[in-house]
Amino acid sequence: MLLLDKIQATSFSPGEQSAVDFMLEQKEGIRDMTVKEIAAAAYCAPSTLIRVAHKLGFEGWSALKESFLEETEYLSHQHSGVDANFPFFKGDTDITISENLAVLECESIMDTFSMLDAAQLHKATMMLRHAKIIYILTAYPNHELTGMFREQMLRIGRTVVVVHQPLYAAWLMTPEDCAIILSYSGETGLLVEAARILNERKVPFISISNVGETTLARRSQATLKLCTREKLYSKIGSFSSEISVFYLLHVLYACLFESEYDRNVERKLGISRRVEARRHSTTSLLQEEEPEDTENR
Which residues form the HTH rpiR-type domain (predicted)? Predict the structure, then answer.
């Protein structure tokens, strides 16, 4: 749920509502204002702001203000005008469709990058690095995307299991493992229950979900945010969310690869030379340089 949605769904006293209305009206204008300045401008007591924060689930006003400003900045970000839900329409030419999808997918990747938190990303990388087995829990449509991630990880010697029965898997995992729970809504019932089990069994997990405050994000030890421009089902394709998922999985693989760079390069290239040695191409850009024969030197 977006913070704005939660605000709309919460009942406030007249004084609290005055503070909320001022915050919604000023948006990023409250960034450099102190508690006393906001209270004076909203005609309420400073303690009213604290009560508003507590009602919305925050420890204090500073945490609410930070979350509100982050969400406001994301939602006000200007895009090209390509609708993520309907990026093309009846009568569009093939080249127009191609251009719109290129723009949408590029913007979706940059959107996802803009929401990356360095500390959260590093924590997620270390969780994967120290995991004995990495499990991915997600809905069926994402299995192909996560399957490609599994194959990449296999090539650097990491075991990734794409789970088809989340609850069984959650009960079988140990604290030495790590899970990635992927859900665009962040509220998928089966996955939320799996997260509860993982918390109970002290199994660390990374959540990947939308920009709002979600149950999965609250229960996870590290959280990554997806580009959030699509409706749940009123759309003609998941172009934006899928490319966002694909990008984040690539980022996790690359960051994990870098954490043991020399070892992973040696393993990846060494095995590839043996397994893929018969591959060839007449295109010069694709052609491999022949490795030196060190045995006969």
Answer: 1-75
